[in-house]
Design brief:
The protein has 299 residues and is an alpha/beta fold. Helix content is 27%, strand content 28%. The strands form three sheets. It has a seven-stranded mixed beta sheet, sandwiched between helices. A five-stranded parallel beta sheet has the order 1-4-5-6-7, sandwiched between helices. A two-stranded antiparallel sheet has the order 2-3. Strand 6 (118-122), helix 4 (127-132) and strand 7 (136-140) form a beta-alpha-beta unit. The longest helix has 15 residues, at 60-74. It is globular. The relative contact order is 0.12.
Length: 299
């Protein structure tokens, strides 16, 4: 049984086309004092339940997910899996300074405490997140989606670039899926210091055309820096592939003043459909989730 929040209606439509799933009914309301209240309107005792939604800000979205999971558990759900296409708060997976919150660990803890048995996401920020989370965390790669676009654009001979070393495995997955013929992955060195981030490179040979692969385009600072570096060494056409397009603020728009021809992002961030630009293409990740669910042993 699938319980889907409105933000992901476009994705739940595809999932509910599967014979193994039926749409669960629920509503989240507010009391007059603004406190949240969940009502489950489908019988779930003994059922395997999936909740499709987000824990990204604003904070009521996370609270609604947690409250719904807790209510399903109260009503006797056999197993609860959260489908969070974008796993917010996953970037605080490194060592935290004394006195600062360890938000990734906190998110995992509250998800477990609210009744989740497992979390599915797309392109989790790092393998470290899986170690931190106290519930099973499964991540789906968008490499096949990106590879299809690369082949259609005739970019199989382009250089493959990682904006930082953490993106190298993503680049390798896309390169393999697309059958790209370029040499080693080009990458940038990004280090955190007390004075901020130092970004240097590129390290490796760059051709006139390059494909940059990363998991998140947030403010765009890292990608703008990387594209400037690629332009300095002669890159003339740049194509960016990001899983989660947050497009925060305005800095990312500087990419258009560089040799960036196109940005590809997936539909894991529904709020960003408000950005209309012919140079940005959105790819659907629903098929990745459908494939997983179609082969899932649901009894």
């Amino acid at each position: 049984m699938l319980f889907s929040f409105p933000e992901y209606a476009h994705m739940s439509e595809a999932l509910c086309g599967l014979k193994c799933l039926q749409q669960g009914r629920f509503c989240i309301t507010r009391r007059q004092n603004q406190e949240l209240h969940a009502t489950v309107q489908s019988p779930v005792s003994g059922e395997q339940c999936f909740i499709l939604g987000t824990i990204a800000p604003p904070e009521h979205q996370m609270a609604s997910m947690l409250l719904l999971a807790h209510t399903l558990r109260k009503e006797g759900a056999k197993r609860i899996t959260g489908i969070l296409p974008y796993l917010a708060y996953a970037r605080e997976d490194h060592l935290i300074k004394p006195g600062e919150s360890f938000t990734t660990a906190w998110v995992g803890a509250v998800l477990k405490a609210s009744g989740f048995d497992a979390i599915w996401t797309v392109d989790v920020h790092s393998e470290r997140d899986k170690e931190i989370f106290p519930v099973a965390l499964e991540s789906f790669s968008p490499a096949a989606l990106f590879a299809e676009c690369i082949k259609k654009l005739g970019l199989t001979g382009a250089s493959v670039v990682a904006a930082d070393e953490g993106a190298i495995p993503r680049c390798q997955a896309v390169k393999s899926a697309a059958g790209m013929t370029s040499g080693e992955i080009v990458y940038f060195d990004k280090r955190r210091t007390d004075n901020g981030i130092i970004h240097s490179g590129p390290i490796g040979k760059v051709g006139s055309r390059a494909v940059i692969v990363d998991d998140i385009l947030d403010t765009g600072g890292t990608l703008v820096s990387a594209c400037k570096g690629l332009a300095r060494v002669g890159a003339e056409e740049l194509y960016i592939f990001v899983t989660h397009g947050l497009f925060t603020g305005q800095l990312w728009r500087d990419l258009w003043s560089l040799p960036v021809k196109h940005i590809f992002r997936t539909d894991t961030i529904p709020a960003c459909t408000s950005i209309h630009d012919s140079r940005i293409t959105t790819l659907a990740v629903g098929p990745l989730l459908c494939e997983k669910l179609a082969f899932l042993d649901i009894d």
